[in-house]
Amino acid sequence: MAKIEVNNTSFEITKSKEGLLIDGKQANYDIIELPNGEFNLLFDNQSFTIAVEGKNASTGELRLSLNGRSVDTKLQNKLAALLKSMGMESGKKKLKELKAPMPGLVLDVMVKSGDTVIIGQDILVLEAMKMENSIKSPQDGVIDKILIQKHDKVEKNQILLSFE
Q: What is the tens place of the pLDDT at every residue in 144-155?
């Protein structure tokens, strides 16, 4: 689940088997990227042209042009909420290491040493208690060393990778 704020109005967005739910209501949509980098969104039989005017990945703020009108948005996902509750809001402190949040089995590693990552980007998949958990980057940065590989068993707080 994620929470998005659009011009000071909040919406809860959940991805389910049926598709996207906005505040618990099924959303019918289709989105395509246009050759010029803009997007065309068909939402509840209405068409919107969307362009990204500016973004701040560390705060989740995004300024969009929606049919030519500027709209300020702010996205907060589970990771951002957890970091905020722990007093580790983005932009306050750069991490040198990413540790396993729980014991589990590494199913996939999506980055390699030298890769540049952005906050919220999927880094690896960790299976714990028969559930697949996507581990996301807590910050923008460059991967220094990957200390685990696919099929490794990891313990809670084990260092998975380091940042430059």
A: 999 999 999 999
CATH fold for the domain made of 94-163: OB fold (Dihydrolipoamide Acetyltransferase, E2P) (2.40.50)
- Looking at residue 151, its pLDDT comes to 95
Signed CA dihedral, 46, 52, 54, 56: sign only:
positive
* CATH architecture for the domain at 2-78: 2-Layer Sandwich (3.30)
Q: What share of the chain is helix, strand, coil (3-state, %, to 5)?
A: 5, 55, 40
> For residue 65, what are the contacts with CB-CB under 8 A and spacing of at least 6?
49, 50, 51, 52, 53, 71
Output phi, psi for 55, to 5 deg. Answer: -150, 150
